[in-house]
Amino acid sequence: MKILTANRLTDGEAVWFANDGTWAETLRNADVASDKEAEARLQALGDAAYANNEVVDVNLIDIDLVCGEIVPSRLRERIRAAGPTNRTDLGKQALPVDQAA
Amino acid sequence: MYRYDEFDHDFVKARVAEFSDQVDRRLAGEITEDQFKPLRLMNGVYLQLHAYMLRVAVPYGTLNSRQLRMLGHIARKYDKGYGHFTTRQNIQYNWPALSDIPAILEDLASVEMHAIQTSGNCIRNVTADHFAGAAADEVADPRPYAEILRQWSSVHPEFSYLPRKFKIAVTGAERDRAAIQTHDIGLHLKKNDKGELGFAVYVGGGQGRTPMIGKKINDFLPEKDLLSYCTAILRVYNLHGRRDNKYKARIKILVHETGAEEFARQVETEFAALKDGELKLPDEDIRAIERYFAPPALTPRPEGDEAVRLARLDSRGFSEWLDQNVITHRHADYAGVTISLKGIGEAPGDASDSQMEAIADLAEKYAFDEIRVSHEQNLILPHVARADLKAVYDGLVEIELATANSNLITDIIACPGLDYCALANARSIIVAQNISKRFASLERQRDIGELKLKISGCINACGHHHVGHIGILGVEKKGAELYQVTLGGSGDENTSVGEIVGRGFGPDEITDAIETVVETYLRIRSDRSETFLDAYRRVGQAPFKEALYAGEAKAA
Questions:
Q1: Average pLDDT of the segment spanning A41-58
Q2: Which residues contact B336 (CB under 8 A, 6 or more apart)?
């Protein structure tokens, strides 16, 4: 399974393509692609957003669903989704629970 | 220190205006990312895991209080309240918005700073001994030459698109505190038997995936020939350096593949054509730049000895700090102070906005307005009267920066690693923090003695692990972090590249492994005066290997 991630052009914020069609600041509601067709659809949306100067560094990343929650497979992407592990007061992990959960 | 003249001001101002316009056009969608990326990199703007990163140049690591205060201001206003001092004597901000970068650059320009040439395949910030102008063992201050190189290399049309990045370091003392032999060009300022100034020139040093120690290709280059000779080196490199393979594009590969002798011959040929031409440095020009770096008027402060003696009796903490973080100054009434940015369990090199401002205040009050950034990621007050040391110490205690660990095992160099960096394969900071906590006891650290531990989160080696007495390299193996340990590296006048001791260790094992290495050293050292590095050079890897892996061999 894969989700689509990028960094927002204006401020570099890590964002994920959500199932409501927006680029969300957390991956909680990311649009999950379960097959090649869905991956191609996400990639096309990413390419369009890149061409449209909304986001940069667009990537499809591997994830697992753990108890229904999206967990990126690679540590790198888990750190992107949370924030620096030595500064838990920074990044997404520092957001109030109702925003970040 | 160097002050911008009218040309410098106009040059930086024009660059800020140019890049601000480029940012505006990018944000308006008028230029694409592919077009913009090389432009932002020329201005120090990277994209990392969580956000953009801005790398600000600190030429040869020298700052005044006003500049350091501005760095604190930028951390507070545009970032998340801190900055990260790097192994190239620069500072990085981890969270700036692209839309704020023009304002940041304007603020920087107001204190004669910028982010030009902190990235890209050009000549990067020229680094120097952080105790330049203060150290007792110095022949002459290397910074005037670093400044001359800075002026020459700034937007140099011929050398702005080199095969790869290019780093120059300069030292003015026999004791190399600038790691010159691990640079593309390393310059050792010295005097010949006639008392004239010149340089031993090393070329082709570097770390990264192929560590190389620089080769000396000239034992004494007269100072007047500095730019002609460096131009000759760069020309040979620019012509023959590989552009087909990024991993073989640094000058170290060219020097290695060409052979130092043949490379030197090619440089001599170029040099012969350039020598005594327009690049020859007139003596009056060198002396004019030198005047910018004239040492502060160090008035006699003979009361220092007594003040230090009394303060020692009064405060054990001060006494320990004095022993560890204070070095001999060329003036007997003064000292050089290392402000450790390596508090126990802290991220190496990080300083908060308020700490930067407080250090600026201390420098203004007690240190002739001068601060240095060391390549070991500490800050330095190069000139402090011994009589004022206690006041400086008290000021540092207040901002929690009085850790007495300079050159000890917790004075760790670590790159940002996978917590921030898009290139990293493994985390570095947390490894440093865990080791720091394990060796928190100062008594234990002092018993271990001088030990340089350096950690990189990928093979690019920003954490200088190759030249750590103990080096740690983080890699990714089967999706997990793994840490390789190297032993016996050194980045001084006797540079050596550390050797991998054996299989790597997981994140939960690496602190124990380092402790095993250290305990082994304590067991085998001939006496307390034999440092870790000396002991390693005497006995080699065997006892360390045995201690780390013997159990496994038996089990297998």
A1: 98
A2: B131, B134, B135, B326, B327, B328, B329, B380, B381, B382, B383, B384
